[in-house]
Amino acid sequence: MPASTSLAEVSTLATNTALSAWGMAGDFLIILILLGVLLLFASYIGRGPFVAVLLAFYAAYALYVAFPYTSLLPTQPPVTALFANIGLYLALVIAFYIILRRVVVSDFLYIGIFGLVVLAFLGAAFIIALAYHVFPVSSIYQFSPAIDLLFLPKEYFFWWFVAPAIGLFFVAR
């Protein structure tokens, strides 16, 4: 009997470890996909429009937080509530991007490839931090404990929030 109990414990441990490793890989894949989308956008459209997107994230967040009609957004089912909130935020990002794109001129802006990767990573982290603290993502998807350690604490939200702005300060010339 002890051998079968030991085998069952090993099987359970292996299954749980494999599932948690798969979940963690999936979470990091989400970050890598966001990073790739931001990098493709920056390389295809240019550095100036990329900076406009990063700044539009901030402007849209300010208006999203102050939006007086959030009670009109659906709250059930959770998927609909999530898509309604994300849709409102994306509409605000697009509106501010159009405005900021006219202001941010890329003629005098230089961001190297390393700086672009850093800014894209910080932009992806900003989006994940918003998913944790602003949008109701937790009702749909549970991130792995490794990602939770990076993004769940309220104190970290501030740092992930200001990280793209600090990155722009140091990387853009």
Which helices and strands occur, and which strands form pairs?
Layout: H1 2-45, H2 47-66, H3 78-103, H4 113-133, H5 145-151, H6 154-171
Helix pairs in contact: 1-2, 1-4, 2-3, 4-6
Number of helices: 6
Rounded mean pLDDT is 79
Specify the biggest β-sheet: none
Cα gyration radius (Å): 20 Å
| Share in helix | over 70%
Secondary-structure element string: HHHHHH
Strand content: under 5%
Shape, principal axes of CA atoms: globular
What is the β-strand count? 0
The count of domains is 1
Instruction: Look at the helices and sheets and give the structural class.
Output: mainly alpha
- Which parts are unreliable, with pLDDT below 50 for 5 consecutive residues or more? 13-19
- Termini separation (Å)? 69 Å
Tell me about this structure.
The chain has 173 residues and is mostly helical. Helix content is 79%, strand content 0%. The protein has helices at residues 2-45, 47-66, 78-103, 113-133, 145-151, 154-171.
In short:
The protein has 173 residues and is an all-alpha fold. 79% of the residues lie in helices and 0% in strands. The chain has one domain.
Notable traits:
173 residues, mainly alpha, 0% strand, 79% helix
